[in-house]
Sequence to fold (81 residues):
Amino acid sequence: MLAKVFVTLKRGVLDPQGTAIHHAASTIGFHGFSDVRQGKYFEIALDPGIEAGAARAEVEKFAHEVLANPVIEDYEVELIP
Fold:
């Protein structure tokens, strides 16, 4: 099983890297983008035989406590069998 974790800044939190990417995109000819927000992506290979509910709980806890700063970031966990 594979866990995918997406971490992004919460709406309302300034994203200077996203702003810089947005500006660069328009500078090099990409148009039609109203905003760019950047984030982090993690893939976690889970032990064979781990039950899906236990896996989700463990990855959610790991994302909350280690991968994301819950004060300024949101995260989403996706499990792939």
